[in-house]
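seq:
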Amino acid sequence: MSFHVSMIERCMDMHHYVRVNTEDMTEDQVIVALIGASVFNSMASAIKLLLGGYYQSSGLQIRYIMESGWLLDYLRTDPKLVQEWKVTPEDKRQRAFGPGFIRDELDKRDGFTEKKRAAHYKRLCVLCGHPTFAGFAMLRPEMNADAHMGPMLVPSLLEGCIQELVQVSITATQALMPFFPPQTLSDYKAKVQFCETTGDWMERVFDKRPDPTPVIELKKLIAQLEAR
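struct:
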């Protein structure tokens, strides 16, 4: 669990880094950075709530991060979408940028047919996002126990929340980064650090490391910049 939390912290570092260190942001980058700021706050809130024993409330933040990550992923498919998202009125937003529409568009783009994004979203909605009987499981210290009002320590719920949080945090951060291409030596180092940490996490959790080529190329660029 501490390994997962370290990965979440690394994601938060990247959100903070690009917002603080990107000079002369374009208007689109400012908009995206604001989404990133809200995701950063939700990561922090989710951690605080789950460590405080409020697992269902933490799940609400986790769902927000997931939805925001998919939004960022969708916005980067077309440069015009950032401004369209900004100005779309609320009565038209669900049709043009609602979570269901975005999930379907991402599935089409990626060639996914199993609707795993929809299943993940629905699971968090049922357990944390809407008042459902199934959601009361997030309030029970044990499976057949009465619901508990207030904080409680339930290892299985703690572990489940952290596992959900680390996955959506990585997705949201990976979707954010392309909007802020590295410009300085510090930028390249931060990106390499994040990529390497993500690779370590994936190898440990899924026993499969991503293609190391991007990191290798970035390290070459860093070496060239340092030589200058």
